[in-house]
Write a structure and sequence with these properties.
By secondary structure, this protein is of the alpha+beta class. It has one domain: Double Stranded RNA Binding Domain. It is built from four helices and three strands. It has a three-stranded antiparallel beta sheet with strand order 1-2-3. Helix 2 packs across helix 3.
Length: about 130
Amino acid sequence: MRLPPNHPALEWSFVTAGGPGGQHVNKVATAVQLRVHVAKLGLPEWAEAKLLAKAGKEGVLVILARRFKSQILNRNDALARLEVMIAKALHVPKVRRATKPTRASGERRLVAKTVRAGVKKLRGRVVE
C-alpha cells in the first residue's frame, strides 16, 4: 500500500541524529520520526489489529529513521519501512491442510527400512 507523505495518518518530526557525520549531523535535523495513527490508515480490522500489536500507547506506531545523512533519504526510508509493515499486516498466510502419505510412499518406506535392517544385521559378530 503506497501512502503519500502528506497522508492524514502520518505525523512527521525531525530531530538531530547523532552518530557518524561530524558537525553536520550535530547541527542539522536529519533524523526523521514518523508517527503513524493506525486507526486513520483505513485498513481492514484484522490488518489494523496486527499493526496495533506493534504500536505503542493510543494506537500510534513510531518509526525512527536516521540511517542516512540526508533528511530526504531518511523520510523515504521511514515511508518504505512503513509500507513493508503494512504489507506484512495485509498478508494472509495460506491455510495448511493435513494430508496422508500415499500408499506407494508408505510401501517404499517399509522396503527401505527392511533393506537398512538387513545391512545392519550383516554388521553383527562373525561366528566361526
